[in-house]
């Protein structure tokens, strides 16, 4: 599934988005206490794959995940959304 997603991104960058500047923002950390199927190691792997695949395209990869640092994220009670302080760091 990830490979298909990456192929769509790359194809779009050379076709319908060829004259556009696109910014892809990394997927952000997920609290380890959540019950969601995707856990943080999967997020890290996904981000690495995307970053590698976007080299040489017109899509700029913006690494917010490592820019803020996974340990510096604060979560709301659901463990998926970020609290106000973390949201302000992303701006």
Describe this structure in words.
The protein is mainly α. It has one domain (20-89). The protein has 4 helices and 2 strands, in the order αβαβαα. The chain has helices spanning 2-14, 40-53, 64-68, 84-89; strands at residues 22-25, 59-62. It has a two-stranded parallel ribbon. The longest helix is centred in the middle third of the chain and has 14 residues, at 40-53. The radius of gyration is 15 Å and the shape is elongated. The protein starts with a helix and ends with a helix.
- Helix/strand structural class: mainly alpha
Low-confidence stretches: none
Strand portion: 5-15%
Give the helices and strands as they follow along the chain.
HEHEHH
Q: On the 0-100 scale, what is the average pLDDT?
A: 80
What is the number of helical segments per DSSP (H or I, 4+ residues)? 4
Descriptors for this entry?
91 residues; single chain; two-stranded parallel sheet; mainly alpha
């Amino acid at each position: 599934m990830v490979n298909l997603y990456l192929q769509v991104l790359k194809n779009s960058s050379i076709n319908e988005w060829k004259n556009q500047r696109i910014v892809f923002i990394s997927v952000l950390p997920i609290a380890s206490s959540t019950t969601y199927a995707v856990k943080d190691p999967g997020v890290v792997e996904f981000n690495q794959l995307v970053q590698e695949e976007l080299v040489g395209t017109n899509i700029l990869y913006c690494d917010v995940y490592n820019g803020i640092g996974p340990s510096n994220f604060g979560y709301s009670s659901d463990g998926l959304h970020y609290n106000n302080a973390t949201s302000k760091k992303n701006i």
